[in-house]
Amino acid sequence: MLASIQNIFSIPELRRRILFTLGMLAVYRVGCHVPLPGVDGSVLAQFFEGTQGTLLGLVSAFTGGALERMTVFALGIMPYISASIIMQLLTVVFEPVERLSKEGEQGRKTMTKWTRYGTVGLSIVQGAGIAVGLQTMRGPAGEPVVAIQGIGFIVLTVITLTAGTAFIMWLGEQITERGIGNGISIIIFAGIVANMPSALINSIRLLKTGAMTLTVLLLILSVMIAVIWAIIFMERGQRRVPIHYAKRVVGARNAGGQSSHLPLKINMSGVIPPIFASSIIMFPSTVANFVDVPWVQTFASMMTPAHWLYNVFYVAFIVFFCYFYTAVTFNPVDVADNIKRQGGYVPGVRPGKATSDYLDTVLGRLTFAGAIYISAVCVLPTLLIGQFNVPFFFGGTSLLIVVGVGLDTASQIEAHLISRSYEGFMKGVSIKSRRG
Fold first, then answer.
1. Which stretch of DSSP H or E encloses residue 370?
2. Which residues touch 110 (CB under 8 Å, ≥6 apart)?
3. Is residue 297 part of a domain?
4. What is the DSSP string of 295-356?
């Protein structure tokens, strides 16, 4: 493996791409420490001390602490992800967008442009909400987070946060085009991994003070390693539906007659279900930070990782969004029609509607297995956080993102190595992307 790492830097193009990616990530991390004008960072830090396990804590973890420090990158890349998901949903429910998605390269460019506009629009709305919320925040002693309030602060905050998100979106596109891996995923990956050093320091501090025993720490590390192994195993798992193509005469020769397969992944929806589920389930705890109403506080106290009601709702939302997002991104009717037009068929299944019904049945069973797998991965670390007071938010959603992005990036690097007649990372082992 060390020889493979040396081979990476012996290929000029690959070395240039990796160094470019690292440079863009360095720019991103610098921006995560540039404070927003007019915000008292010390008072804001006291406010965020109790946000672990809330929506604010989740978003702050994805932004590498940029939201907690309220920097110019406080919104992170989440508006872009939201805009992309909205565009995918519109391709199902809005016919003009569906036609546009089938127009090839030109349609893809148009949808990318619309996604960028949607990102700016969402950033303006979220930036305005953050600006108004900052003016209402108070520290433990009643000191305001924003000293000079008014419309000027709101306008400045909206412009700054929107520009920050647009710049991150540009960084992600540059990494995708000129670097290695998917730029947006790499940026999220960097934000999550950036919290690991502080989490390690906090764990060592708790170990020294006796708040956490060595046995508990080793147990947590063992569970994390087992979960990572399970994620790698399941993300690479797929059901291969055999496809046979009938022979046909082309000129003076026979063509066709080949056999292929349609790969159906166990986890077709990726990390979207746990992200959506976390956002919804953590909303009451987030509202409780701003609203002092007894019943809201009571309900928010039950929506914590240690409470059974939280985990029940969490699993239910994950299962729902697994089926929902899989139905949005994979249409068995279109796939069956494409197979039929190409002269293919599934052995033992009639072409057309019977094939689409068969694919829908297979996909439904895979989605159920994938939903159970995602629920187990997400709930187990959450239970550890609530049971053993783990001093950092590194739950199942973060693990799914980190491991998945790592697999995709490693597969791209290995593809570069193999295309130039080098061995991959490990001799005799092929690293597959989650996309198959």
1. helix 353-388
2. 100, 103
3. yes
4. HHHHHHHHSSTTSHHHHHHHHHHHHHHHHHHHHHH--HHHHHHHHHHTTEE-TTS-TTHHHH
Q: What is the CATH number of the domain that holds 82?
A: 1.10.3370.10
Distance CA 171, CA 133 (A): 28
Report d(CA 101, CA 98) in Å as an integer: 5
Claim to verify: residue 212 and residue 144 sit in the same structural domain: no
Inter-residue long-range contacts of 214-219, CB under 8 Å, 24+ positions, other chains counted: 216/388, 219/388
CB 358 within 8 A of CB 349: yes
Please tell me whether residues 319 and 186 are part of one structural domain.
no
Does 371 lie in the same domain as 310? yes
Phi-psi group of 348: left, alpha or beta (phi > 0 → left; psi -120 to 50 → alpha; rest → beta) = left
Buried b (16+ CB within 10 A) or exposed e, 253-270: eeeeeeeeebebbbbbbb
pLDDT of residue 385: 63
- Considering the domain architecture, whether residues 190 and 289 belong to the same structural domain is answered as no
Q: What angle do CA 203, 208, 212 make, to 5 degrees?
A: 55
Q: Are residues 431 and 374 in the same domain?
A: yes
Asked whether residue 43 falls in the same domain as residue 190, the answer is yes
Instruction: Tell whether 185 and 219 lie within a shared domain.
Output: no
Residue 4 resides in a domain: no
Check the CA dihedral 192-395-226-430 and report its sign: negative
Rounded Cα–Cα distance for residues 268 and 373 (Å)? 12
pTM of the predicted protein model? 0.76
Measured between its terminal Cα atoms, the distance across the chain in Å is 23
Question: Mean pLDDT across the stretch 375-392?
Answer: 69
pLDDT of residue 380 exceeding 70: yes
Number of domains the chain is built from: 2
Identify whether residues 127 and 203 lie together within a single domain.
no
3-class secondary-structure state, position 265: strand
Copy the structure tokens of residue 348.
């033992």
The whole-angstrom separation of Cα 120 and Cα 64 is: 21
Of 10-14, 302-306, 402-406, give the lowest mean pLDDT range. Answer: 302-306
- Give 61-99 pLDDT, tens digit per residue: 667 677 778 888 888 888 888 888 788 778 877 788 878
Residue at 9 is within a domain:
no
Domain with 338 in it: 195-436
Structure tokens at 276: 């959506």
